[in-house]
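Team,

Forwarding the record for the chain on the shared tracking sheet. I've put the sequence and predicted structure together so nobody has to dig through attachments.
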Amino acid sequence: MEDPVLKPPVVHPDSTTAAGSNPDTPAAEPGIILEARNLVAGFDGKDVVKNVSLGVPAGRITAVMGPSGCGKTTFMRCINRMHELAANAHVRGQVLLDGEDVYRLNPILLRRRIGMVFQRPNPFPTMSIYDNVVAGYNLNGAHLPRVERDRIVEETLRRVALWDEVKDSLYRRGTFLSGGQQQRLCIARAMAMKPEIILLDEPTSALDPKATAAIEELVVSLKGVVTIIQVTHNIPQAARISDFTAFIHLGELVEFGPTKTLFTVPRDKRTEEYLSGKFG
């Protein structure tokens, strides 16, 4: 990758109030765990993400929203280097994880530190629930004692509020679960590796309202345990669960800040028009 020429500053969220906090009391500014600097990415020579620079707060939920085709998912896939797996993909600029350029890290090790959950639940179809949870360890050649694997499975399934529902079915295939349960299993599979960040790419878009509510509740419960970056086209969902929101339009970062501020007093007319449903 080329060394970037850093022109626009990295946008850090304001240190005022995050969503759900007392608007009269400034919140302590969280540390920045991830920075994109002048990030450009696309396919076949066409830029989909255009010079995006922002800093993601640690231990919080950051929503990335915007209309379909605006570059949200491409931006997300650059963070854990999945974008480069696509045919004719290109990327320029930097993504820094705890100050380290992710494009200079081993991608396999990087994806242990940055887990990802996709739109549609995708438990490994030939594996049991148990083996799905510890799949990351097995794929990375970590031969853990059975007692350690048992502990990881139970602790992680409890963390995603799935243990009581599946504890008597651990050796059945994960695909026998409902869609919402499968998505929680996929989150458990990512959480089992104890990542620093989890990327959620519209994780409720294929789920019914009840399952969606369960995933939203789970995501909020994980705040502080892990940093979460969630792509969503669901404006009310971003308002409900996120602390910070980035609005991307036509590949450009339009606005980024505390969710409550962005939703109530957006600084850019495009943000206001998107939130009011004038386009999207």
